[in-house]
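Table S4 entry, Antibiotic biosynthesis monooxygenase.
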Amino acid sequence: MPYAIVHHFPGGTQEQYDASIAAVHPGPDTLPDGQIFHAAGPAPGGWTIVAVHETQESWERFRDSILMPRMQAGIEGGFASPPEETAVDLYKLLP
């Protein structure tokens, strides 16, 4: 079942997003294994990222093996604090 993660970074900026994505994605226009959708943009009070993974397990694998270790190590110019997170078991995902 597709699994969505919504991250909102209060006070986040496009520059912080660019630095963070460069550190955790395999390339500028390439998604991590298991991720099938990615969108990001400014939102009231900060920056929001929406990522859809093939399954909750693929999200957890990315989170535990790539995202968290790199964020905990510190990403120069990246987001300064953890996001507000919302997870959604998707009922429907259209192309």
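The chain has one domain: 3-89.
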